[in-house]
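pinning this so it doesn't scroll away 📌
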Amino acid sequence: MDTHSVDVVVIGAGQAGLSAGYHLRRTGFAPGTGFVILDADDGPGGAWRHRWPTLTVDRVHGFHDLPAMPFPDAAPDRSAAEVVSGYFAAYEHEFALPVRRPVRVEAVHSLPDGRLEVRTDRETWVARALINATGTWSRPFWPHYPGRSDFRGRQLHTADYRGPDEFAGRRVVVVGAGTSAVQLLGEISAVAAGTTWVSRRPPDFREIEFTSEHGRAAVALVEARVRAGRPPSSVVGVTGLPVTAEVRRLREQGVLDRLPMFDRITPDGVAWDDGRFVPADTILWCTGFRAALDHLAPLRLRGPGGGIVMDGTRVVADDRIHLIGYGPSASTIGANRAGRAAVREIRALLTRDAVLHREASI
């Protein structure tokens, strides 16, 4: 297996990874020799290329431009996956970003000389610093409930959803209190024999106009968690669910009549300890995602609280490692800012290391 050396390896070519690539190139890192971007997908788009086809541009809760290239005007009924993937492809081409794909990073190790070894399924890279921008889409969260393995119907996660047609005539239980659960309920309820909405906590609908102040407050709450070494909560989870015209329509139709979380799953449905039972053919778990960081396990970055203690984008336990698209930067505008901040700190680190190396050799 070939081994290559660069100053910086970026893992992931979604919004956060492309932003980091732009700032690396802008500040003097040469594409291919100064930095490389490794992406596990077989084409541009990051997690967006996997979104369900019925998620259209007008249903996306905002998308912030990548640095120096405005997001294109697009018909509101176009597939968000198609539009964003095209935008990312154009961005990679415009700024000649050195994206290598499909490359799956398997593990990152620390070498005795202070560099990082990034092992992939195709080759090995050795770098002085690493920007991790792997997001969460590849790690769907499936909560455990008694009887789940006994269910005779179909179970799938938001990550598996491809549209409502496959639910036609089915009795569907949708689990989760987030934006995806509400959107998919709306689609599925139009074709299903019946839908039941359940969640562990009540949905947090908010009849307010979300402003930049609300966004900053939400990001601050998530940032406080990662500074304390706790696993990050989602920024969207902190902001709550906006009451849109579609939400009002679904309320009037009774689609959003939510039940508390069931206690167990039976072969033919879901049940509560109070005797309630709902028959089901399908359970759709809209239960979120976790940060895709397993490849960083050899570095032992996690603390006692189960999370990684962060200072901005920098991992406190290892200043060679920056996480973007993680915690407070897990949004399109947050990812842009995080990319710039990470590159600034990495340049300062590498400059400092170079000075120390020169002084030591005198």
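📌 and the second one:
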Amino acid sequence: MTTWTWRRLANLALGLSVLGALLGPGTPVLAAGRNCQDNLIAVALAPGLHKDQQVFTRLCLPEGPPPATVQVLVHGITYTHLYWDFPDPTGGTARYSYVNAALEAGFATLAMDRIGGGASSRPLGALVTIESNAYVVHQVIQALRAGAVRGPTGAIGFEKVVLVGHSYGSFTAWYEATDYQDVDGVILSGVSHTFQPTAPLNVLLPLRPAFLDPAFFGQGYDPTYLTTVPSSRQITFYAPGKADPAVIALDERTKSTLTLTEFSLFPLVLARPLDIQVPVLLANGSRDTLFCGPTLTPGGNLCADAQTLLALEAPRLGPRVPCAEAWVLPGAGHMLNTLLDAPQWFAVAQEWSTRLVGTGPGPAPGCAR
């Protein structure tokens, strides 16, 4: 899919905002006056290599003076930056826009296409690994801190960074925060260290080489780039969550890719010891069939409630996490941003970010003592 098409989709969200205003109080509407700037940031795939790749990013600022804190948003496999600012195809609201919720809370956001996906560079698929993903995100964070990323009115820098991931993007956040220690808070959604025994069949069977898919014909994808077969995304990513069929259809039309190395190395990713040293928020759907199935614990389900999720996941984040919290969306599947109940999760993430990191300059408020 071309960059032009992505921009058309983003403009769709803005153009529908008038309809959202007609839906009455309590319905999220698109933030007025949002200021966004698209960038291609030069990156290398590993330390010591030339910066011969580019990642697509969209930096958005809230109204008023620029905040001190930016949330860096990292999507999962077969998605793009659009996951964080997904248009409402039927209501014209901001129901599915994490970006909008963060802007309303006073944060800047930078949503990126992970390396190999969307409008970012597409190196050999074998080079797109969890390590290269994490290193690319690290370079983006360093550029944000150095004031080297262009905003709507020129280059802008940020004092504090909250790293927010979903699914494989949360894997990337595990590695980035552990290896580079350059963020002030981490939000991990749609992930756990318990990949369910039935999940590989749920994910693997609907995959095929991207070059065989009509959406990617003739675009030069090597055979190690994969995508989902048509009509498989609902059962793989949504069920049994409550989702608008029009959202799932738009999800299908805007899907992206993953690489064989990203998928095949899941067991090693899950086994890797972590050392996150900043506050962490864990957020999952209670019926996520990929990461929240039955466990051997008395509670039975890893995501039965926030207490169970926290008890099982917090020790895996490393011995120096100053504090961790958890939240579970009842009845939700793997996707959180594109479910009908998404605003609940957005509100939790922004409240936590405000309380633990804050939008203003100076030290982060940090954990309660």
